């Protein structure tokens, strides 16, 4: 399992604790030279950060890649990635928050199943449930089923489609770029942190006006930490998606909250908004 730093620099003691968690889960961890570089608010230059990712995908001894931290900077390196190399060497890639830029782009350009889940620094203090969910997603042949412990059905219904998405702010910033995602025929998962209600409203309306939600099969909402009241957040989603006949289920413990359940992005899944569950159709790392 190789470690990369596509975005912001990180606290070394927290990172080391996260590595210990990965090792305790049975993974052999490879920390490449140059991982700890810093350049202002970035973990090294754009070329350096992209090169680490390209080299990890090229290394035949690496089967999975976990990001050290999110933060800021992943969008800056998208044009520097070797997509032909990545397509020829598909591997597990795990991260969330700003890492959504990579997860989404590698699915869009390479049809790579990516994993929306914890980064090394958040694993340092992650509860056992989050650790187990990561291990099950990336190292098990079981077909995943995620049941919402605190789910809220915003709109009833059942649908099956590939799931995609991630951090709302990051996805919004991809609109109008060569890496703009196509959500048509997909179940969209969204989460965020520290965004006021009016900013969530503005981003959703921008994406709606851009046609991002046309042909959407379903909507799943994760954690919206420090984004105002859940009631306000759900009201905004209800207004933006008024008249759109799709199942909408909120309350997935994935994103910036204490619990961050790993979601394989790009896999076919059945969303049952009434039974409050996501049932995947095949194992995440098989086939």
3D structure, described in words:
It is built from 9 helices and 13 strands. It is of the alpha/beta class and 287 residues long. The chain folds into 2 domains: 136 residues, Rossmann fold (3-Layer(aba) Sandwich); 136 residues, 3-Layer(bba) Sandwich (Glucose Oxidase, domain 1), CATH 3.50.30. The strands form 2 sheets. The chain has an 8-stranded mixed β-sheet with strand order 5-13-12-7-8-9-10-6. Helix 9 links the parallel strand 9 and strand 10. Helix 8 packs parallel to helix 9.
Chain-wise SSE layout:
Blueprint: E1 2-4, H1 12-24, H2 46-58, E2 64-67, H3 83-88, E3 92-95, H4 100-110, E4 114-116, H5 120-123, H6 128-139, E5 145-147, E6 152-155, E7 158-167, H7 168-174, E8 187-193, H8 197-209, E9 218-225, H9 230-240, E10 248-250, E11 263-265, E12 268-272, E13 277-280
Helix pairs in contact: 8-9
Structural class call reads alpha/beta
Compressed to H and E, one letter per element, the order equals EHHEHEHEHHEEEHEHEHEEEE
Strand content: 15-25%
Largest sheet: 8 strands, mixed
User: Can you tell me the CATH architecture of the largest domain?
Assistant: 3-Layer(aba) Sandwich
Task: Count the beta strands.
Answer: 13
Q: What's the gyration radius in Å?
A: 18 Å
